[in-house]
Amino acid sequence: MTAPRWIGIGALTALILAGQGGDAARAADSGPAAASAAVTGLATARGDDFRLSGELTQGGWLRGLAPAGARLVQLNGAPVEVAPDGQFLIAFDRDSGPAATLTATLANGRTLTRALTISPRAWQIERVPVGPRPGATPSEAFQRIRAGELAQINAARSINSPSEGWRQSFLWPATGRISGRFGSQRIYNGIPGSYHSGLDIATGTSGTPFVAPADGVVILAAERPFTLEGNLLMIDHGMGLNSAFLHCSQILVKVGDRVRRGQVIGRIGATGRATGPHLHWSIKWRDARLDPLLFLGAAK
Ligand SMILES: [Zn+2]
235, 255 in Cβ contact below 8 A? Predict the structure, then answer.
């Protein structure tokens, strides 16, 4: 097995710490909140301003600590769920615009605003000098099956479990060759196809076990292969963050199971629409599609 090749994500990494709000000494604390902060690199002392750390770029995320006394945090005017210890997660779609606004409404009625700049990514674009494949009109039978599958996926995504996986640094679910990157897109004779929504990891064979990249709750475990995704497994990491694993040859957990970071949850396969055995891993936060590579920190 070869180690995954690491691309130049480091250049895109943004580490933002508020100018106010305490230093490392003040942040020293004990208890579970401090332990999780050690994982995410986020200080736990709540100050006068937001403390933020993460990947402020398209397909990226920020973990934050709300200012002391915040009773409401909003991203672009939409409420953001905040944990009892003040930590929260926000993320930015693959096609996110460059500007976002984070606000905290404090108990004294004051509003604190942080303007965020989301850096653009240079997506891998392949121009193909042919038209899109003239797909046959899907049959009625297919459309009926597909509607049921999409309903299952949407129902799963609407589950918000109390999982704390969103606080963790993520593991590679499997070690292998990156055979497809998040966000890559083909343009057929000027007509853009849909972009690749996940990270493909190929180990060369079917049956290779893969693990949960972070703690979570199983929200979908297909009992029979979906038309496109094949055997589909979805894990909720809490706070609106979830992972999907496609094309599995076998799913080793069931809906409702709590899984641990590093626990074997399935086997890689080529079920559904796949040209060979690989694990397609996608991550969403609410409706935003995210780049799994940005959750992984550094390559092994
Ligand atoms: Zn894929």
Answer: no
